[in-house]
Structures are given as C-alpha cells and as structure tokens.
Write a structure and sequence with these properties.
single chain, 206 residues, alpha/beta, Ribosomal Protein L4, Chain: A, 2 domains, 6-stranded mixed beta sheet, elongated
Length: 206
C-alpha cells in the first residue's frame, strides 16, 4: 500500500510503501474489542470496597424481644436492613485483570492499524520536529491539514519541543512507538505516523 508523506503543515515530502502484513489486513472488530476490554480492565484500580455486616462496629445485643412487639424478628443491628448496618453483596478489593496472549495482542494491534488504513485515516509525516515549543505553530499546521483528533506516534523518543507544543491541544496525543496501543489508536479520528515509527512498527509486527 503506497501512501503520501507530508510535513505537519501539509507540505509534500515523497511517499512510502506500507506493508500489507501490518496495514493491509481485513479488520476484525472482535479482536479490537477484546484488546480494548483487556486494556481498560488492566488499568482499573479495583480498590473499591464496602463493609459487610461482619465488619461493622456495632453492638451485637438483640434489638428487642422476640415476641409481642408486632414487628418482624431481629437479632442484630448490623444487618443491611438498618441504617448504619453492613452492605449486602457490595464491591470488594480485587483485580479486574484477565489474560490475553501475546499473539492476540500483536494481532489486535495489526488489525487496529489496518482499520485506520482502510478508513483512510492514516497520515504519514516525514518527522515530528519543531524548532521551538510553540503551540500556535502546531495548531496552525493542524488547521491547514484538517487534523482535529489524532494520535501522533514518533520514534523511540518524541522530540521535546513537539511534545510540549502538542500537550496543550485538546484531542491530540503524542506517544513513542513503544507505547502505541489499540485503545489510543481507535479513540482518535486520525493516526499520524512518522517514517521512523512506520519502520519500527513493521519491524516489530511482521
């Protein structure tokens, strides 16, 4: 698959051939969905918790006599029926993480990249460099090319000036190629890759 290469402000800078093994697959929504579910589950803290009736500090004395009151029988004020009592079946501290094999993770990433390529939502830049960390310069370039929501993936370390300029723009994310992931690819409208990012992704996923 051949695609044009531009600068961040839309100036032509040649073309590049993308590998069909990485960018030319028929996207599978089930794989992408499984990967996103795994990512979101993994980042959940799981620290939510409530006290059940055994953990409530309250007297264990019988509330009132068994018979003759006309009311229901109760033996403890710690039960969930009463205000201040324990909660029934509430959340407890646990991990929400579940397993997903390395092959499935790699395949899901290839399908996410292919989904963007199929939609025509991939943009290739020569590089992601700025002479100075000025947000207005980057914003003007995006205005020319119509980029509003994008994940920008650079080489192993994004340039500091570019990262500083981009962090003030809403719906623009900048990641090193090692941090590229299915969730961030799918949640943004465009996927912007530099030449070095394309080379690294193809070497990693072929």
């Amino acid at each position: 698959m051949k695609i044009d290469v531009t600068s961040f402000d839309g100036q032509a800078a040649g073309s590049i051939e993308l590998s069909d093994e990485v960018f030319g697959l028929e996207p599978r929504a089930d794989l992408i969905s499984r990967m996103i579910r795994w990512q979101l589950a993994k980042r959940r803290a799981g620290t939510h918790a409530v006290k059940n009736r055994a953990e409530i500090a309250r007297t264990g004395k019988k509330m009132y006599k068994q018979k003759g009151t006309g009311g229901a029988r109760h033996g403890s004020a710690r039960v969930p029926q009463f205000r201040g009592g324990g909660r029934a079946f509430g959340p407890q501290v646990r991990s929400h993480e579940h397993d997903l094999t390395k092959k499935v993770k790699a395949l899901a990433l290839r399908h996410a990249l292919s989904a963007k390529a199929k939609d025509g939502a991939i943009i290739i830049w020569e590089n992601a460099h700025l002479a100075e960390p000025k947000t207005r310069v980057l914003h003007a370039g995006f205005a020319k090319t119509g980029v509003v929501s994008a994940l920008i993936v650079d080489g192993s370390v994004p340039q500091t000036n570019f990262a500083l300029a981009a962090r003030n723009i809403p719906m623009i994310d900048v990641l090193p190629v090692e941090g590229v992931n299915v969730y961030d690819i799918i949640r943004r409208e465009k996927l912007v890759l530099t030449r070095s990012a394309v080379d690294a992704l193809e070497a990693r996923l072929k």
